[in-house]
Amino acid sequence: MSLSSPWRADFPAFAAFSESCQTYLDSAATAQKPQAVLDALLDYYAGGAANVHRAQHAPGERATLAFEGARAKIAAWLNAESASQIVFTRGATESLNLLAYGLEVEFRPGEQIVISALEHHANLLPWQQLAQRRNLELVVLPLDAAGDIDLEQAERLISPRTRLLAVSQLSNVLGRWQPLAPLLAMARTQGALTVVDGAQGVVHGRHDLDALGCDFYVFSGHKLYGPDGIGVLYGRSEALSRLHHWQFGGEMVAQADYHSARFRPAPLGFEAGTPAIGTAIGLGAALDYLDGLDGDALAAHEAALHARLLAGLRRFDGLHLLGEPQIALASFVVEGVHNADLSHLLSEQGIAVRAGQHCAMPLLRRLGLPGAVRVSLGLYSEGDDLERFFAALNYALELLR
Ligand code: PMP
């Protein structure tokens, strides 16, 4: 039975792709953009670019309205109480670095930062480096047999010395949702701050951050069908007020003299310099686009792709899935075959997948693997993409084995 996406035609890249790459299966790295996002970018620039929050002139007011409108859309999307809880950054990575610098003075030597064994480098290295700067202990929560953060071990390891917990909502390698609610509760009980890396999770379903109750949540626009160069740091108002400023310059300052200055609170206090105006507007357009889709149809489509992806992969002898993914994303290895050779042969056949360590080197090492191939689908993906992929995989494995 064909499994077509009613939204495919909204994404002009697929027409352009057909020459060089028939099949794009790397959406967890970055997603294609719907025409509505491209239109919003063009509309903003063609209508007259202007800086925000600075000018009284008409183009400046138009830009400010659109930029702040995007902030309000993101707040609504995350069910934040106020748009002032949304800080624009360049992406999830920058949001996490902002936190690691902005919270630095909270820590005293010997205190703990707790992360997990499955973190992306973006949610590992800023904390590792902070731990080195402040002489802190970086505690790594182990995973259970399913590849999820082990709650029994977490209960043991999250301690009164824990000042911060930073964990992924959804693993970019294993495609599994992490048990956030109990983890956040354990951290809260110890009075620790909580950070959720939503870079992958934000793409799959709507999340009510007010209900989730984390202090901070970060994501990138480009995985959520928006432009690159724009990301979000959400914070609870009280948590945001604890952040120290980390980049200095125009617009983040309330009062400046030669030898002293007073800084603005969030969000503008953390958006030094000219922000990414067009791309913020583009991210707002991506949310409008997603809001306009039938959520039930979207969930059903993703579930069908997920089922077909896993069933298809399981038919290959010697192919081992890394865990049991819960979304339409699967990482795998094949006995006797190097992941880079496989992805190369797939690429030669017009199939784009990702191979390597997926910015999670310690996780791959822990799994005893030099790397893995990852296939990740988007709302525009179709059954035919998978059929082409399976045929190409079959051919590649015939050549390699
Ligand atoms: N965390 C996770 C789980 C990710 O998958 C990614 C992107 N691969 C990031 C953080 C970093 O996102 P970005 O590169 O857009 O800053």
How would you describe this protein?
Its cofactor is pyridoxal 5'-phosphate. Belongs to the class-V pyridoxal-phosphate-dependent aminotransferase family. Csd subfamily. This is cysteine desulfurase. This protein is an alpha/beta fold and 401 residues long. The protein has two domains: 131 residues, Aspartate Aminotransferase, domain 1; 254 residues, 3-Layer(aba) Sandwich (Aspartate Aminotransferase, domain 2). The chain has 14 helices and 15 strands. The strands form four sheets. It has a seven-stranded mixed beta sheet with strand order 2-8-7-6-5-3-4, sandwiched between helices. A four-stranded antiparallel beta sheet has the order 11-12-15-14, covered by helices on one side. A two-stranded parallel sheet has the order 1-13. Helix 2 runs antiparallel to helix 10 and helix 3 packs across helix 10. It is globular, with a radius of gyration of 22 Å. It starts with 12 loop residues before the first helix and ends with a helix. The mean pLDDT is 96. The structure holds 4'-deoxy-4'-aminopyridoxal-5'-phosphate (PMP). 4'-deoxy-4'-aminopyridoxal-5'-phosphate binds next to helix 4.
